[in-house]
Model the fold of this input.
Amino acid sequence: MPDPSPRRVRVTSPRTGAARVQRVPVAREIEAQTALGEVYMSSLLRSQLRLALLALATLAVVVGGIPLLFWLAPELSSVEVLAVPLPWLLLAFAVYPFLLAIGWLYVRAAERNERAFTDVLDRS
Done:
């Protein structure tokens, strides 16, 4: 009676000396200044530029909006707080905590962008 189980056959490649595909880390691509490395770096620079422009636009709207507010509503110019005119109070003192807050938020977001970039580099 013939054996019902199929006979096993071993299949091998005749190209045993073929080169294997080597993955190149992204960090090496950046160091070598290849086209792929430039794509990664331009992506980081674009995100940092976008963040800087957002911070600058916010600053321009708020700080530039204060004189515009007093130009549109001149009756606010006569308001005094602790014997200091309101425009002077806002432009001389209230702006600085806002500047510090914008700077602090910008640094945190820039560091977050850089961490995300290094995570991409580490994963690759």
Notes: The chain has a mean pLDDT of 82. The chain has one domain: 25-123. The beta strands are 80-81, 84-85.
